[in-house]
Structure formats: C-alpha cells, structure tokens
Amino acid sequence: MQTLKRKFPGVVLVADLNWDRLLTVAAVVSALVAGAQLGQL
Known about the structure:
Elements: H1 2-7, H2 9-39
C-alpha cells in the first residue's frame, strides 16, 4: 500500500472518495429497506 501511495497519490485519493460515497449509498439503501419493512407492518 505504501508503494501505491508513493507512486499514485491521486489513486489513493479517488479510492478514499469512492469509499466514502459507497458508505453513503449503503446507508441510504439501508434506510430505505428499513422504512419499507416498517411500512409493511
């Protein structure tokens, strides 16, 4: 990982941003699924 950071610092930044985006999408999807489950009760 250190080699990747030294050779391609932009790639690491993009990966960090995508990880953050992925967590956001996962949280939204989880909330929608939970809301749908509660709506069916």
